[in-house]
């Protein structure tokens, strides 16, 4: 069991940021990644649909024998957090809790901003978790065009900056001192976001925070790979084009993803 892979899931390619952070912190661990490219983007879709897609992909990872599930997608985490923990025997790590905990310990003035897809912000998953602490005030903004920019490989154009100015203006005016980047794609826009928000605002990125949670959970459950483990990395996508996945993966992450297998997830019926 200990040398089984960690299953990492995202709506597409963006979750590779989480896979990379996990591999950097845990180089002996094997990784099985599925990007649901056939149905991405999840951000604009109804939350009930996202939940169904996400459970289908997670079922597929569990059938392949992973020892842990990592939901790298913020929109999917927002849609089916509790369901996943109840449904699977293996531990489930998602991206919202780790980022929330870091934001709570980072803020000095108690004013926290959260940005994400329309689905993530509309679900109020971040807001509800942060507002458990009554001393915090949360300001949330959906930034749908950010994903489009990153997928097009555009991270430093004047258009990105102008859009960031527009989306982030309410958060600047609200005086947040901590901003959660609640989407897989936003770390690629950290330059523009930090420039607009100002260097005194701390940015909390879910990829590295989630990798720390994976580390913590593996150690505490005695699930770390054995000392002689030979790590493997397998990447799967549900879409029809391996080339599209690889092209975007290379643009975002460099050449470390060499090959992708096209797979289908099993359909499940869920009551709505
Ligand atoms: N992975 C999604 C997220 O983190 C962004 C891309 C999408 O909309 O599918 O919310």
UniProtKB/TrEMBL annotation:
Protein purpose: Provides the (R)-glutamate required for cell wall biosynthesis.
Keywords: Cell shape, Cell wall biogenesis/degradation, Isomerase, Peptidoglycan synthesis
Family: Belongs to the aspartate/glutamate racemases family.
Protein name: Glutamate racemase
The keyword Zinc belongs to this UniProt entry's keyword annotation: no
Single GO MF annotation: glutamate racemase activity
GO biological process, one term: regulation of cell shape
Residues that, per the record, bind substrate: 10-11, 42-43, 74-75, 184-185
Database matches in Gene3D superfamilies: 3.40.50.1860
Domain of life: Bacteria
InterPro entries: Asp/Glu/hydantoin_racemase, Asp/Glu_race, Asp/Glu_racemase_AS_1, Asp/Glu_racemase_AS_2, Glu_race
Enzyme class: isomerase
Pathway field: Cell wall biogenesis; peptidoglycan biosynthesis
